[in-house]
Fold:
Amino acid sequence: MKWVLLMSVAACLMLSACSGGSGGASDKTKDGKVIVSFQTFWGSETRKPVIEKIVNDFNQSQDKIEVKHTYVPWGDIWTKNLAAVAAGNPADVIVNDINSVSHRAQNKQSEDLSPYINESIKNELYPNLWKTVEYKGKFYGVPFTTDTRLLFYNKKDFKEAGLDPNRPPSTWKELEEYAKKLDVKKGSSYERIGFYPTWGSFGAGSWMANADNGKGFIEGDKLEIATPRKIETLKWIADWRKRLGDKNLQKYEADFGSGQSNPFISGKVSMWTDVATFYTQIRDSKTNMDFGVAPMPAYDSSSRHWNEGGGFVLEIPKGAKHPKEAAAFIKYMAGVKAQEYWAKKNYDNIANMQAAKNVIKGFSGKEKMVYQQAVDNLKDTRLHPVPIHYPDYQSRIDPQIDAAIHGKKSAKKALEKAEKDVKQQRK
Structure:
């Protein structure tokens, strides 16, 4: 998310926001309950009923607060929120991006929650998530959901290739060896590709962090872009593309965007990286695929299975009319009951550790296998919040990565140029 752009858009929307962002004309119901307006982008047929059930459960659990949920489309919710904050009329609670909490705190767009919520709540939530909501010794959000990437692999393909279906690749070296055995080539084209690193949801930057001891492109204020491991990784990805052939990959990638079924599910790719919810696509495909899941392969046998995650937090926008009541609702949302219900119904990774354990106990079979792996992954999953001094760093790095992968630049020159460009961007 490009927060500099969002700020400029928000300024343009200030006048329209003056008509009301709180979602309610009155502060109280007829029976005296304080109305708390709650905005999310969860409007799908699956997610909307779940969040509204949680809201209804909270409303029935006490007699002082009435939460009213409003759906705002993904493309609008955050720009409209910033505009409403600027106009002094925001919602009381909003779902927001976990990796940009500190920016909203710095820009005074969200409320410090420490006066309303005891910091001991962090002991109930995954520590790596809690770090993202802290800013200058205070916290400005409460984690709600997160994610992590898994390696899905087709056991039938493994057997056909002479690989042990119960022993997925653990290192990059094994990943390459397995992928080559799983490839099915006919002439100069492929009927099946064993694996390609940037397909799925683990991009080039994630692989670079995986190799570089979990370090992102920027750690604190230190640039970690053109490090030896990241340069090596970018060359590694470019070598995969060179081996498989640009035309072959482009042909596959064209099918990805055409609305056809997922290439892993359709049997065109043997190994695939994705979040745990990808399991529901496999399940609903009715293919009865025999598949397994594993951690992301480690750089080598002495390295951890570093992963990368994101997620969402609950915030009180700056200037909200009912922060005390909003905080009470946020505490409920982060509690075991609400978190467990959300996870069971949406198959999401959640922030509450006890709730995650409870969910696993209620699952069985493949459903349990995938969710257990996702929860296990969290110990090696790092979040990389958008740095305060480099809010738009990704736009300087991505073109250089793309150039290197497609052989237009060496990996070293590409990342050195990216680091130079990012350094010049410092606020």
Summary: The chain has two domains: 3-147+311-379, 149-308+392-425. The first helix runs from residue 3 to 17.
